[in-house]
Amino acid sequence: MIQHIKEKLNDKKLITVVSLDIEGAFDSAWWPAIRTRLAEEKCPVNIRRMIDSYLNDRCVRVRYAGVECRRDTNKGCVQGSIGGPILWNLVLDPLLKGLEQRGDYCQAFADDVVLIFSGDTALEIQRRANAALEYVRGWGIRNKLKFAPHKTCAMVVTRKLKYDVPLLSMGGVAIGMSEEIKILGLTVDHKLTFNTHVANVCKKAINIYKQLARAAKVSWGLHPEVIRSIYMAAVEPVILYAASAWAPAARKVGVQKHLNSVQRGFAQKLCGAYRTVSLHSALVLAGLLPLDLRIQEAAALYEMKKGVTSLAGREVERVVAFADTPHPAKHTAMGFVSLVDQSLVETHNSQDIRFFTDGSKIEGKVGAALSLWDREAEIKSSKLSLPSCCTVCQAELLAICVATRQILRRQEGTFGIYSDSKAALQTVTNQSALHALAVEARANLSVALSQGKVTSLFWIKAHAGLEGNERADHLAKEAALKNKTRPDYDLCPVSFVKRQIRLESQGEWNRRYGNGATAGVTKIFLPDAADAYRIVRKILPRGVITQVLTGHGGFSEYLHRFKCKENPSCICDPSAIESVPHIILECPIFARERWTLEQELEIELSLQNIRHIMLKGKAREKLLEYAEAIANKTIRRNKET
To answer: In whole numbers, what is the pLDDT of the chain averaged over residues?
Structure first.
């Protein structure tokens, strides 16, 4: 809807958005209309009879103060039922088709219907909109549904500085104009700034934070992973809802400030930091991407999945629509046999033709292969090429799918498909798996069965010495490394798309982090935000470690800053400021511990070397242990004095 409005704005049109309100929509769905619609859609008689039985003799009962009132009903889709939305869609569908045939732009989700009118003048929009609204009202009367004009909202969207407002009415009742409309939880304003929507979702997130703050303190309370789960499962979904519609607004500085104020509190709770810690430090130590970048990620992923945009010219792999799969009644029961040892292989090795399939990803290149064997030896082989963005699972599925295609081209007989990928076989045999290759493989196997060709699926252990499997593995590696032909399958997996989008986000985050004026101490340890994103999950900064990594803790410099100590100097030298870099790298009081660490790490402890030490697992652990130990001594001494 937003995309349509923006297209009309680019054409310099005047746009009017009308959101219709149906009084008690689901409760008012008229049963005779449902029965008529089932007949019009040529629904099978047995299903129509079943729905007639479902709707027959229904009543509403209310018990109150010991008295029961009973009333028969002839309308309503039971809310919360599985069939309710389908029955409602049947009723509403003719209205949408009728509006479309009239040339009016409409969208609907359940009982939320939106009409959009565009034109050069308000008079033109007024004429078309009032005619459409009268058509809607007449349809409602015929189907015993009442549209409420006083609840129907309208809004004008335009880039023109001077314009007239269309006068809309429905059934003689004027429809008022407003500056914003809430549609499916998204508040759309007349200038498409989405400032109101951002303010609303930020308010919801802050309310969640206030409840969380009571149970998560610096030294006690909820575990960081519990806080992370709450943030990921409750806060981010609230913020990211409908991100694809309002993502451009997240690039504005004002919106980013709103989002940052929400995220900063959660990030500080995650890493157990003081409230004075900057946003950059808190996000890096919590391992959270800035919310505005997460919004851009969600929007980009949505657009690529829907085919609106592509990744470097590559089409993104999409699952098959449920409506395009076979009816559940036509599903063929499928399964595979696991052959865990050679004796089981020999027991089941009785097919006329055996297909050994395999996929391989080596040196960043992907290939697949299948080897055809009769009862004695290999009779044919095929190499399949895939682009480097593809996964091994895609290669395995492609090999199995190609095997089923070849089975269709062969004469009657028995066939066996042997694969060492249990995941690929489970995808193929699972009727609810909607991967395009798996759906095609199942369809091919069903057709082959109808032709009298019996096909069995087997899982075999990889690299167990089985000749056919070893041959397929060798061919797959050759296909990956040496094949220069056009790819047999070149759809980009969603996992690769997510990875590329995340890399772009991390690059932008790293630029902001590096150019920011805050997080000076954190940058000593973690100068690169992308590296920090990988490291913090391994160290889970908390307590004293967080104080060390941020410089906000029981150190003289920090305590003096907030007037908790008379001067910021260290006891080693009145002219030396007691900061984190000082106690770790320079303070003579801790010279022995520092020397011991340098001998263990075989590297001098300096500002330039700390960043390199943090990238190495065991060295990082020793550095943080050393930093925590001397920080504890410093904090304890400052408490006593």
So the answer is: 92
Taking a C-beta distance cutoff of 8 angstroms, is the pair 407, 415 a contact?
yes
| Cβ-contact 487, 386 below 8 angstroms | yes
* DSSP H or E segment with residue 290: none
- Please list, in sequence order, all residues whose beta carbon lies within 8 angstroms of the beta carbon of residue 573, skipping any fewer than 6 positions away: none
pLDDT for res 413: 87
Residue 315 in tokens: 């089409």
Half-sphere exposure of 365 (CA within 13 A, CB side): 14
- 442: tokens are 């199942």
Token readout for 168 is: 């809309």
One-letter amino acid of 162:
K
Kindly give the pairing relationship between strand 454-460 and strand 336-339: parallel
Question: What is the phi/psi pair of residue 59, to 5°?
Answer: -140, 165
Where do we find the tokens 């969208």? 107
Interval 390-436: pLDDT, tens: 999 999 999 999 999 999 998 888 999 999 999 999 999 999 999 99
The answer to whether residue 609 scores a pLDDT higher than 80 is yes
d(C-alpha 161, C-alpha 14), whole Å = 11
Strand 414-419 vs strand 454-460: parallel, antiparallel, or unpaired? parallel
Pair of tokens at residue 275: 């409230």
Is residue 313 classed exposed, middle or buried when 0-12, 13-18 and 19+ CB atoms within 10 A define those classes? Answer: exposed
Half-sphere exposure of 568 (CA within 13 A, CB side): 15
CB contact at 8 A, 116 and 5: yes
**Phi, psi angles (nearest 5°) of residue 531:** -65, -40
What b/e readout covers 55-73, taking b as 16+ CB neighbours within 10 angstroms? beeeeeeeeeeeeeeeeee
- 218 three-class SS: coil
Query: Phi and psi at residue 538, in whole multiples of 5°?
Result: -85, -25
Specify burial of residue 498 (Cβ count, 10 A radius: 0-12, 13-18, 19+): middle
Find, among 509, 497, 517, the residue nearest to 286 by Cα. Answer: 509
